[in-house]
Amino acid sequence: MATWLEDARQHASSYMIIMLIGNKSDLAGNRVVSTEEGEKFAKENGLMFMEVSAKSRENIEEAFVKTAEGIYKNIQVRVSNVLDETHGIKVGYGGLPAEGRDSRESP
Predict the structure, then answer these.
(1) Does domain 3-100 fall into CATH 3.30.110.30?
(2) Which of 29, 48, 68, 72 matches a 20 to 30 Å C-alpha distance to 94?
(3) In 3D, which of 71, 52, 74 has the Cα closest to residue 63?
(4) What residue spans define the domains of the chain?
């Protein structure tokens, strides 16, 4: 297993969702790692896998959505506890900065 993956698993929740991203899918002719190699590594290590292109924006949003869906699924089956920040989840206020919230709202 790659050392980056070992480090991540050692220092995080065992239920952490990891998405392996193959970037620059728009440059298929310059590949160093094939789609099949990426998929195989992901499957063998329990990771999600997608190929994206930052240049063409292909699959960028989908990668975030699929990762969020995995996290949400863990919450639904109570693997991750949203009240325990050691699980890596911090409940927020929909992305509004503190100074942007109405003063009547609780912090």
Answers:
(1) no
(2) 48
(3) 52
(4) 3-100
